[in-house]
Design a protein that fits this description.
CATH architecture of the largest domain: Alpha-Beta Barrel
Bound molecules: phosphoenolpyruvate, magnesium ion
Radius of gyration: 26 Å
Largest sheet: 8 strands, mixed
Structural class: alpha/beta
Number of domains: 3
Strand content: 5-15%
CATH topology of the largest domain: TIM Barrel
Distance between the termini: 26 Å
Number of strands: 17
CATH superfamily of the largest domain: Phosphoenolpyruvate-binding domains
């Protein structure tokens, strides 16, 4: 029994077999064969199966992720159709009498090395990757050793991978019961998706893929960020009990959902849900959410084979607003770039994608894309309480440009006789340090702020939110972050505007008393955490927390802040 320590990224427990998603190293030894006809037939068959496989995968990618994602596989299709590539390998069999697997291994290695030497542009890099992909498939058939493929999973399993992307998540099926990665942080987008899907997840284990073997029994402890490999009976029993308690705890919190979220001294807060797809709206209400604080609209685009048109988007937004008859729904315009890519929209390849062409920057450069989305939102506004916000706004000019696009579209629709609500709030996310420092001016223009702490933390500390190596800097409880949040809230309140927080910090036990003390108006999070947060807020007294807040803001580091909160908020000790 071994224990791996990582970071808790999505709560809950999974106890099942491991499924390794990673590169397999095939061992191929140099052998000659006397039966060349047989070897040529094996080679021919392995090419035929691989061609079919790639074609099927390409069709699947097209269905799930769109034409452009599928086009990435064109290179593999080309290689498999290249008669020269095939005959070079065949010659190694017929002229040099090598086995088919040795011939494949030799020739593909030759191309890999060749492309690596010329590895100075994207095209050759992609070609090298495609040769590796083809090699693995051919060898897997020739050696009779299957390659891992999570999309074909037909039994419950915990996925163990070096890294997981949001696109991988789109392709996972219901058999995925837990996720463990070597890399990544708890606010990587795939981790946020795993919370929405309620898949227990531990990230940043560094060596998970090395220490865990396919088929090992593992326990994923998504509450404490631990993975137990090959547990003994006693440990399995213990975790089965914990899993049962966890499920009960979730139910208990559920009982609180009908009441309003009011602190002990009478301050009212909204605890809303972050969702990615329209069909999550109703379940989030059932989970006790008091509205939608963030609809991450980019996931609609990720699930679609083509860029969704205005009508398709209108139907999706209408579905969310209709599901929330009395509650506010905050929709965020397309936030792609960084680690979120669309198969249907090619973004430039950049050295620093998180500092590059992302979010509102993409929308303002492609106004048709933004206008289509905004029109769909405005048309849907007739069905509920809509608020629209723009992601990653860095300057007043950006906000004004985005807002004027919205105002223009609103006027155009009204002229055409389309019904548009007249009380739509237009706000922005505060996730860049420049927005914090200019919050007083921005608050005059925006109807509300929503603090995106996931990004704000990474940009404040210049520490990539998905990079484990700089994870020691990525601290939401650091006074630098707390001061930024307080400054943002104070600036908005001075203009009579409200402030939400929709990053992961909103659901962090130790942060909640401080955010309550600052007077944050809306907490928004994955809906599985809503009732827990609501129950904690109900036990707090905003006024009494003021001295703690001042000590926290004056503290030197995150660790001191955590200790202060832990020591001074008894309600936290009752939480499990
Ligand atoms: C954030 O940055 O905190 C946020 C909510 O946006 P996302 O996680 O989608 O970047
Ligand atoms: Mg963000």
């Amino acid at each position: 029994m071994d224990v791996l320590n990582g970071l808790a990224a999505s709560g809950g427990y999974a106890i099942t077999r491991a499924y390794l998603l990673g590169s397999v190293h095939f061992v191929v030894t140099k052998h000659h064969s006397n039966d060349q006809n047989h070897e040529v037939k094996r080679l021919h068959d392995s090419f035929a199966i691989t061609r079919d496989e790639i074609k099927n995968l390409q069709q699947q990618a097209h269905r799930n992720l769109g034409r452009q994602a599928a086009m990435v596989m064109d290179i593999e299709v080309d290689i498999m159709a290249d008669s020269e590539f095939y005959s070079e390998i065949e010659q190694l069999v017929t002229l040099s009498h090598f086995t088919a697997e040795w011939a494949v291994a030799q020739q593909t290695q030759h191309y890999q090395e060749l492309f690596k030497k010329m590895n100075n542009n994207d095209y050759l890099r992609q070609r090298a990757t495609a040769v590796t992909e083809v090699r693995q498939r051919l060898l897997s058939h020739l050696l009779g050793q299957p390659l891992p493929d999570a999309t074909k999973l037909d039994h419950p399993a915990v996925i163990i991978a070096h890294a997981i992307t949001p696109n991988d998540m789109v392709n996972f099926n219901d058999y995925v019961k837990g996720l463990v990665t070597d890399n990544g942080g708890p606010t990587s987008h795939f981790a946020i998706m795993s919370q929405q899907l309620r898949i227990p997840t531990v990230v940043g284990t560094k060596s998970g893929t090395k220490q865990i073997k396919n088929g090992d029994l593992v326990i994923v402890d998504g509450v404490h960020g631990k993975v137990i490999i090959a547990p003994d009976r006693k440990t399995v029993d213990h975790y089965q009990r914990l899993a049962g308690q966890y499920a009960q705890e979730m139910q208990r919190y559920g009982a609180l959902r009908e009441k309003r979220t009011v602190s002990k001294d009478g301050h009212h807060f909204i605890v809303a849900a972050n969702i990615a797809m329209p069909d999550e709206a109703t379940p989030s209400l059932e989970d006790g959410a008091e509205g939608i604080g963030l609809l991450r609209t980019e996931f609609l685009y990720m699930h679609s084979a083509n860029l969704p048109d205005e009508d398709q988007q209108f139907q999706s937004y209408k579905q969310v607003l209709t599901a929330m008859p009395d509650q506010q729904v905050v929709m965020r315009t397309l936030d792609i770039g960084g680690d979120k890519r669309l198969g249907t929209l090619r973004l430039p390849s950049e050295t620093n994608p998180f500092l590059g062409f992302r979010a509102i920057r993409v929308g303002l450069k492609n106004p048709q894309l933004l206008r289509t989305q905004i029109r769909a939102m405005l048309r849907a506004s007739a069905y509920g309480r809509l608020a629209v916000m723009f992601p990653l706004v860095a300057t007043l000019n950006e906000f004004e440009a985005a807002r004027s696009i919205l105002d223009e579209e609103k006027r155009a629709l009204t002229r055409q006789g389309v019904k548009v609500a007249d009380d739509i709030q237009v706000g922005m996310m505060v996730e860049v340090p420049s927005a914090v420092t200019m919050a007083d001016q921005l608050a005059r223009e925006a109807d509300f702020f929503s603090i995106g702490s996931n990004d704000l933390i990474q940009y404040m500390f210049a520490a990539d939110r998905g990079n484990q190596r700089v994870g020691y800097l990525y601290k939401g409880m650091h006074p630098a972050i707390l001061r930024s949040i307080k400054r943002t809230i104070d600036a908005a309140h001075a203009e009579g505007k409200w402030v939400g927080l929709c990053g992961e910090l909103a659901a962090k036990d130790l942060a909640i008393p401080l955010l309550v003390a600052m007077g944050l108006d809306e907490f928004s999070m994955t809906s599985s955490k809503v009732t827990r947060v609501r129950s904690l807020i109900k036990q707090l007294e905003k006024r009494q927390l003021q001295p703690l807040l001042h000590q926290a803001l004056a503290a030197p580091d995150a660790e001191t802040v955590c200790k202060l909160v832990q020591a001074q908020v008894p309600a936290l000790h009752d939480l499990q």
